[in-house]
Amino acid sequence: MATIGVGIIGCGGIALQNHLPGLELCPDTRLVGLCDNSAEVLQRAVQQTGAPVHTQDYNELVQRDDIHAVIIATPNFTHAPMAIAAAKNGKHVLCEKPLGMNRQETLDMFRCASENNVRHMTAFTYRFVPAMRYMKHLVENGDIGQPYHIRTCRLQDWGDRSIGWRQLSHMAGSGELGDMLSHRLDYAHFLIGDMKRLTADTRRFIDDRQGLESDLEDWVTVIAEFENQATGVLESSKLATGRGEGARSQDYCEINGSEATMVFQLANPNQFQIARRGQAGLETVDVPREFLTWQGSSRDPSQGDPGIAFRWDQDFEFIDAIQNQRECNPSFLQGARVQSVMDLALKAAAEKTWFDVEYPEG
For the chain, which terminus, N or C, has the lower number of CB atoms within 10 Å? Predict the structure, then answer.
């Protein structure tokens, strides 16, 4: 195809802040259509983008011949039906995380996309953080020796504010686990490898958020043993008083190895800290230029807010995979693998025990 026509389903902040600028980086790509079930949200997005096609019915979007790919940025319970409808109509699909409501849904999405020979991608944006990519390079090259531990900590302060559909189990599936820890589970896979077994715990401290029921967890932690014998502690909370929200709140990852320790904070996505064996304390390392952008991306890493701009590279990866007829990174399979861990974590938290991890195969 000469030009890839894209439709966006779900026109909230994620779509307009993360995906729209990313599409602008992609050659031979055009935003054709928008869809949102809110007429008000849809109208604002149309005014901002000038997209010629707009509808409140996603089926109209995925059936159009001038749309070849869709981006799904909607509540979790809608992901599977939307992605499956798109794939059955021959559309490539980039879907926000968590990929689905449970393991079976994500496997259905993966298999449908595979059977219809469309590109499929899960929006695990941390894989595109420059520091994360360079840290993975150092782990793979043996610079930190044998990985011993990974710990992650995502702390935000949402208090008792309403968080809409994200506080309702029938729309979100899980709370802080799917909302924030899903990213940490994916980049634990990315940095360390597969988990062998795990246990977990969850808590809900707020049952009522501004007059609306909340029936999902506000806090979660997963303790894991990896196949390479490394250990992991992954924690996330919406109730870390005073920590704030968004990219400037506490977002921390540390990896300890036999030869070095690496520490990453999202507040500084283009650098991290490292302490080598025998070294007194941590030193700050700037990420080399070749890791500042995704391979092939035209994004200028010196422009824009570095805490936001790296996210645009995921849309470049999606479109580039379509243009070159290759698998996206990360694909729906990675989304299904994380969902498998999430399902097991909820079971472990309920039964207060450990479980072996069984990953789906591609």
Answer: N
